[in-house]
Design brief:
Strand order of the largest sheet: 1-12-11-2-10
Distance between the termini: 41 Å
Radius of gyration: 22 Å
C-alpha cells in the first residue's frame, strides 16, 4: 500500500543505523498513490527477500486460504458446494438483479443466522466497481434501506441519506479530525438544529458539519480498492461479467484475502474465470528497481522534447 512519496518520507525519518523490515504482498492491488515500491524493492535484488509460499496443514483447512492461493497461481478456486461447514462459498447469480437479491438475503438473514455475525458491523460487501446494478453505489442504497431505514432524524446531503445507525466510510484524509481515507464508522447522532452529525470511529466520536458530509459515504458496500489494508469478519463479493473492465486476478485475490472468517462470492463462474486469467492488472512503469539495483551508478540524462 506504500507509494513512493510515503516511502521517501519514511526513509528520511528512519535513523541511519536503524534496521527496516518491510512486510507485504506484491500480488495484491498496487498502492493508490504512484509507484510499486514493494515490487521494485524485491525485483532490484538490493535487499534480502524471504517469500512465504507454502500452505501448512492448519492453514490448508481454510478454503479462504487455499482459494486465495489458487487464484494467485492463476487457477480457479473450488466453487463447488462444501460438504461440511466451510469459510468459503460460491452463490450462483446469472444477472445483477438476481445477485442483488441474493446479497441482501445473505447480509440480512442467512449469514447472521448461520454464523452469528452482525449484519451491519461484521459483514462487508466488496464490489469490483462503483457503477452498475451490482456496484457499490446501488448496493449501498439497497442495503441501507434494508438494514437501517431512515426515520425522522436524518439528513440528505451530496446524494446520500445519513441517519443514526448508518455504517459510513471516510473517503479522504482529514488530519484535523484524525480520520483517514477508508476508515469505517457508525453514525451516532444527527442534530438538525446544530447542523451536524456525530460518527463513532473505533470508539472515538467525530463531529461533522452538514457541509462536510461530502467526506462520508454509506459503507454497507465498498469497492475492493477502498478495502486495501483492511479485513472483516465476513466478506461478500459480487463477481459478474457486468464488472468486466475490473475483472483482474489481483483485484479478486485482494478481495478474497479481506475475509477473516467467511468469504462468499456471488455471481457467475465465467466472471470468476475471467478475473483469474487476467493477470495484466496493476502494471506500472517505474525506474526505482533499476536505481536500487547493485552495480555501477546509473547515468541519468533528462531532456525535453519539442523545445528549441
Amino acid at each position: 500500500m506504500v507509494d513512493v512519496l510515503l516511502m521517501q518520507a519514511l526513509l528520511k525519518a528512519v535513523p541511519d543505523k536503524a534496521a527496516l523490515l518491510i512486510v507485504g504482498d506484491i500480488d495484491q492491488l498496487p498502492s493508490v498513490g504512484p509507484g510499486q515500491v514493494l515490487a521494485d524493492v524485491i525485483s532490484s535484488d538490493a535487499v534480502p527477500v524471504v517469500r512465504l509460499t507454502e500452505v501448512f496443514r492448519q492453514a490448508a483447512q481454510s478454503r479462504i486460504i487455499t482459494g486465495a492461493h489458487r487464484i494467485n497461481q492463476g487457477s480457479m478456486p473450488d466453487l463447488s458446494p462444501p460438504g461440511l461447514e466451510s469459510d468459503f462459498y460460491f452463490v450462483q447469480a446469472d444477472d445483477p438483479e438476481t445477485a442483488v437479491g441474493r446479497i441482501i438475503a445473505l447480509v440480512k438473514a442467512r449469514i447472521p443466522k448461520r454464523f452469528g455475525l452482525d449484519p451491519i458491523h461484521d459483514i462487508q460487501v466488496l464490489c469490483p466497481m462503483n457503477r452498475g446494478g451490482a456496484g457499490a453505489r446501488s448496493l449501498n442504497i439497497e442495503l441501507q434501506a434494508t438494514l437501517n431505514p431512515a426515520g425522522d432524524r436524518k439528513v440528505e446531503r451530496f446524494g446520500w441519506t445519513f441517519a443514526p445507525g448508518d455504517k459510513v466510510m471516510q473517503i479522504e484524509n482529514d488530519y484535523d479530525k484524525e480520520v483517514y481515507n477508508g476508515d469505517i464508522g457508525t453514525i451516532d447522532d444527527v442534530n438538525s438544529t446544530a447542523g451536524e452529525i456525530v460518527a463513532i470511529f473505533e470508539g472515538r466520536s467525530v463531529t461533522y458539519g452538514f457541509g462536510e458530509l461530502d467526506m462520508l459515504v454509506p459503507a454497507y458496500a465498498a469497492t475492493i480498492h477502498k478495502s486495501q489494508g483492511s479485513e472483516y469478519p465476513a466478506v461478500i463479493i459480487p463477481v459478474l461479467t457486468q464488472h468486466y473492465p475490473m475483472l483482474q486476478r489481483n483485484l479478486l485475490y485482494t478481495a478474497v484475502t479481506r475475509g477473516k472468517r467467511l468469504v462468499v462470492l456471488v455471481g457467475q463462474k465465467k466472471a470468476v474465470a475471467i478475473a483469474v486469467r487476467n493477470a495484466s492488472g496493476g502494471r506500472r512503469w517505474s525506474k526505482l528497481a533499476e536505481w536500487l539495483r547493485p552495480g555501477p551508478p546509473i547515468s541519468r540524462k533528462f531532456g525535453v522534447a519539442g523545445c528549441g
